[in-house]
Amino acid sequence: MSNKNLMSTVALPYAEALLDIAKNNSSLDDFTENLSSISAILSESKELRELLFNPIVDSTLKKEILKSLFINQVNDSILNFLYILVDRRRISSLNVIIEKYLELNYRLESIVIAEISSAVDLNDLQVEALTKQIKLMTQSSKVRLIVDINPSLIGGFVIKIGSKIIDTSLSGKLNKISLYLNAN
């Protein structure tokens, strides 16, 4: 089992519990917004990530840092949830837990998640056009795009919707040609 699969397996029960708390409190939108903000803060601050995810750092210090950052900024239930993750030494899985939570929440709200890897940064018109096409393909009224820049694609993009992959990248086409030539 790969490290990412293991992290996903560990993260899923926590994400499900968090979703249940959000539903019981009728706070799905608040939780989603708060968790997205926490994720953004973690992705922007390497020092914070290193401190929180370091198993040697004392859990009391981690809780104090979380409290100073997020008190009156996020829902109290989320802050308590972060404390539980610290106590159970699962705070290093926070990003994956947030990812899983968002995935479950989008599924609950019938939002299609499309992961797009592109060789270059997409402009607003391209994102809008892709969103329209994905809505047509999936017959969904709501689509959430997760865009990732991957220069190794050389050109084009790869779209992943659930288990379906659409590869229009230059590197993908070169791989197909290579497989065809090697087969003959």
From TrEMBL:
Q: Is this entry keyworded Transport? A: yes
Question: The organism sits in which domain of life?
Answer: Eukaryota
Q: Does the keyword Membrane apply?
A: yes
Q: How is the protein disposed in the membrane?
A: Peripheral membrane protein
Report keywords, A-Z. Answer: ATP synthesis, CF(1), Chloroplast, Hydrogen ion transport, Ion transport, Membrane, Plastid, Thylakoid, Transport
Output a single Gene Ontology CC term carried by this record: chloroplast thylakoid membrane
Entry GO MF terms: proton-transporting ATP synthase activity, rotational mechanism
Q: Where in the cell is it found?
A: Membrane; Plastid, Chloroplast thylakoid membrane
Subunit structure and binding partners: F-type ATPases have 2 components, F(1) - the catalytic core - and F(0) - the membrane proton channel. F(1) has five subunits: alpha(3), beta(3), gamma(1), delta(1), epsilon(1). CF(0) has four main subunits: a(1), b(1), b'(1) and c(10-14). The alpha and beta chains form an alternating ring which encloses part of the gamma chain. F(1) is attached to F(0) by a central stalk formed by the gamma and epsilon chains, while a peripheral stalk is formed by the delta, b and b' chains.
Q: Which family does it belong to?
A: Belongs to the ATPase delta chain family.
Q: What's this protein's function? A: This protein is part of the stalk that links CF(0) to CF(1). It either transmits conformational changes from CF(0) to CF(1) or is implicated in proton conduction. F(1)F(0) ATP synthase produces ATP from ADP in the presence of a proton or sodium gradient. F-type ATPases consist of two structural domains, F(1) containing the extramembraneous catalytic core and F(0) containing the membrane proton channel, linked together by a central stalk and a peripheral stalk. During catalysis, ATP synthesis in the catalytic domain of F(1) is coupled via a rotary mechanism of the central stalk subunits to proton translocation.
- Protein name in UniProt: ATP synthase subunit delta, chloroplastic
Q: Which organism is this protein's natural source?
A: Laurencia sp. A25
Q: What is the lineage of its organism?
A: Eukaryota, Rhodophyta, Florideophyceae, Rhodymeniophycidae, Ceramiales
